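Appendix B. Chain record.
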Amino acid sequence: MTGVNYLLETKNAKILLDCGLFQGSKDLEHKNSEPFSYDPKEIKAVIVSHSHLDHIGRLPQLVKSGFEGKIYATPPTIDFTRLILEDSVRVLSEKAKKAGVVPLFSQNEVDELMRHFVAANYYKRTQATDDIYFTFHEAGHILGSAVIELEIFEKKIYPEPLDFARGKPSRRIVFSGDLGNPPAPLLRPPDFLDSADYVLVESTYGDRNHEPPQECEAKIEKVIEDAVSRGGVLMIPSFALERTQQLLYHLNNLVEHHRIPRVPVFIDSPLASRITEIYKKYPQYFNQQTTFEIDSGDDIFNFPGLRFTHSSKESKEINEVAPPKIIIAGSGMSQGGRIVHHEVRYLSGPKNTLLLVTYQAEGTLGRLISDGAKKVEILDQAVTINAKIEKISGYSAHADQQFLMDWLRSFKKACYAKDQNVCHEIKKIFIVQGETKAAQTLMGLVRDELGVDAEVPDVGTIAEI
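Structure tokens predicted for this chain:
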């Protein structure tokens, strides 16, 4: 489910967890133009888990509608948010012009939004309102992504030094955001938390397990070798944020160890280029192995044969390069971006290959192709699919069913040492952010294996906790 947006209301304040754009079918995307179901002027703060559009994409509209509070996020999330929203201004403007409607937001509104951001680091308890504190934990989904731990206090807690003796949290709520798929290239694994009263957990892959992530490099090696031997073009639709950097990391290893033939590799995404520069800015967020490689002098995002294309002219020049070649371009679900131009040109060629390495949401072109469609419409052209379609699920940035269950098992009953009457034990788990089958499957497992009450809430559901 996209358009992630949760409203938390206490006696003293209203805050939001994420404020994302609806993505997928035209009917779903139409919801982006509808008014918020609450008054943005009443919201005191927003806490952002990470910078994917389905978690941040409606923030400009929130500010435009009267929100005046602070928006908390990790430093990488803030940097990524600006780039992604600036890129979205262009994409949404093109869509709006085609549909004859007003764009959802402008560059000026993005600039205004960014003035509301406040950086918050991992593991630092931060005050959002008089009675709500939060702590960011590593989510391992993309660089800077966070699990959000919320503490709700019955009494006002005074500023630093924090006087927690005046009141203990009456509720501890944990929002998973999007959990990563460990072990992942570049990133540390998600943190396991030990206590909560209520948990909101994502369920994108709640009904299935991935192939082991460590097998991704071997599988992409095989796909590249096959594509080269057939003399074709290997297209990889990829999100500019995280997936492209993971691919670069693996391709760098394959090239350096002479495991794949030397062929031109194009990163046909100006946004991916800019995001990669931000990755270089935050090496302290990488996992141990990546940090060791960087310290050893390895440029993990560069290798012979790699070319970043920025202008439209450079993108078109890729067509002049004879195959075999590899093209990595956005968007990851083929819903726009430069990849669709390459798909129009190359999907009908039997020597060519399309490699899917990201989740393909319902209603997207990528989902149609993934499900085996033989004919699709791209850029108002009918395209017959003769190319070979390959998939690697281990590249997913989302946790699979097994990891989601392991993560939920980590929550234990926890009491305050000086007050055994104040304890936190899971009372309910809300299964969110998944398609119906995935969410319902995970809910059943939670009830059966963990013995905990679980619910798949509908949009607009109000839960008193």
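Further analysis of this model is presented in Appendix C.
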